[in-house]
Amino acid sequence: MRELAGKTAFVTGGASGIGFALGRALAEAGMKVMLADIEVDALVAAAKSLDNFGQQVRGTICDVADLTSVERAAEACYEAFGKVHLVCNNAGVGAGSGIDHISLDNWRWVLDVNVMGVLHGIHTFLPHIRSHGEGGHVVNTASMTGMLSARQFSPYAASKFAVVAMSEGLATQLEPLGIGVTVVCPGFVRTRIAECERNRPKRYGRAQTPEQATRAGVLALEIAERVQSGLDPSNVAARVLNAIRENELYVFTHPEMHDAVKTRFAAIVAAMDKAAAR
Ligand SMILES: NC(=O)c1ccc[n+]([C@@H]2O[C@H](COP(=O)([O-])OP(=O)(O)OC[C@H]3O[C@@H](n4cnc5c(N)ncnc54)[C@H](O)[C@@H]3O)[C@@H](O)[C@H]2O)c1
């Protein structure tokens, strides 16, 4: 989508971090922007901080894990701005610990937000974008954890591998229709992701065994430190805008992780070679 000015973007997780930086960068590029988020106070503050764009930026409450909530937010966006061209399925949460130590509630929460949330955005907006025929673009925020699974991040890694796979599939499907797809795979970025429990709905519970709580606490501290020294979200947003204009599928922002990806793929290729040799 080479021309952004005058078109409309819907950004989930738009009240904070990467989503907010994306919202601001898209508004600066002349787009009308609907920030959609589950956190009411942060959403109000985010929209207010962009009030120099006037009516061009608005906010709507949205829980991406809930299809009805996404559909309602989409209606609010159509009502405010008319046609939507760009959907950024960006909202995400993490819950740590190894695969055998993590509660099913944690798995459900992370998969509902990070995987179903992305699917709900696609399911809701794609028929609309197809039908208006003006072209469009879908941006899905995954992570480097969607390229490299890490022992301590089982649900998060599973969710982000899923987002990469969904995006690759969607890109092939939408190419003939002139609708682009970008999957964003950052390493650590300076946002509030380490505090994501703040937005955990009650339906996913909070109960943890003391052992789980200790492991989760240690991990949370580790992540918080790495996030704090991470990339500024505005850098990620700038890369995403470029990818939308150039219709690029992958956005990587942490080239220092190149060797780790290469090692993973080398192991896969070696195993395939072994199969071929048998
Ligand atoms: N920060 C990093 O290091 C990093 C690295 C790679 C990928 N990511 C991904 O970037 C995306 C944005 O996260 P961030 O780092 O900006 O964190 P953040 O916590 O600063 O922002 C996430 C936003 O999502 C919102 N949100 C949470 N649950 C929601 C729900 N159910 N419905 C709607 N909104 C919801 C939050 O309120 C928040 O505003 C996520 O998908 C995350 O997994 C982050």
Structure description:
- With 278 residues, the protein is an alpha/beta fold.
- Helices cover 50% and strands 13% of the residues.
- The protein has helices at residues 17-28, 40-49, 67-81, 104-132, 154-174, 210-228, 233-246, 258-277, and strands at 8-12, 32-37, 57-61, 86-89, 136-141, 179-185, 250-252.
- Strands 3-2-1-4-5-6-7 form a seven-stranded parallel β-sheet, sandwiched between helices.
- Helix 2 (40-49) links the parallel strand 2 (32-37) and strand 3 (57-61).
- Helix 3 (67-81) packs parallel to helix 4.
- The longest helix is centred in the middle third of the chain and has 29 residues, at 104-132.
- The termini are far apart.
- The relative contact order is 0.14.
- The mean pLDDT is 93.
- Nicotinamide-adenine-dinucleotide binds at residues 12-13, 15-19, 37-39, 42, 62-65, 90-93, 113, 141, 143, 186, 188-189, 191-193, 196, 199, 227, 230.
Mean pLDDT: 93
Shape: globular
Counting H and I runs of at least 4 residues, what is the number of helices? 8
**Strands side by side in the biggest sheet:** 3-2-1-4-5-6-7
Alpha-beta content class = alpha/beta
Characterize the quaternary organization of these chains. single chain
Q: Total number of β-strand segments?
A: 7
Q: Give the % helix.
A: 40-55%
Radius of gyration equals: 19 Å
Give the cofactors and ligands.
Answer: nicotinamide-adenine-dinucleotide
Largest sheet: 7 strands, parallel
How far the N terminus sits from the C terminus, by CA atoms, comes to: 47 Å
The portion of residues forming beta strands comes to 5-15%
Unreliable residue runs: none
The arrangement of helices and strands along the chain is EHEHEHEHEHEHHEH
